């Protein structure tokens, strides 16, 4: 399987990753961001935002981008021409929403073309949420390791990464609009149900816990 990335695709991936880092930093540390308006930025506040940006890139950024790359890899596996395209207007809205204290992110999508069966389309769609579920396990391990070692930064990375990926998996399995869940349901309702019940249920459970509670 030959996975290639065009210059435009590499640029779009980089821009989406950075924009998501900015958006989630503004959301996670909204109080710090708001304190900067109308005043001279303090070294402490800038340091907090710098750490927040790294946290956001390592958690939300990785979760979103690996989700999209999973779609690309499976699409290419089935002989599709597939590339990620960033949605610059949505990325701008994500940053503005973060500054306003809201969580919103739609960085773009992998577009693919070629002859394909309903099953293959369903598996391409399912690949993104499946990667997020795998990342939940990875970040859970990081969280547990941080707890055991008493390392707060590692604990925070693990916890935020776990929550973001649970939410991503659950949200994308909703059977509406352009979301992955609708494509999976179109292929197989039993597969959709088996995937949607734990992911959507997990997202609802984690959604009830504020993201900012560990920061």
UniProtKB/TrEMBL annotation:
Keywords of the record: Hydrolase, Membrane, Protease, Transmembrane, Transmembrane helix
InterPro entries per the UniProt record, alphabetical: Metallopeptidase_M50B
Residues annotated as transmembrane: 14-33, 45-66, 86-111, 123-145, 157-179, 191-208
Molecular function in Gene Ontology: peptidase activity
Superkingdom of origin organism: Archaea
Any GO BP annotation: proteolysis
Protein name listed in UniProt: Zn-dependent protease
Gene source species: Halapricum desulfuricans
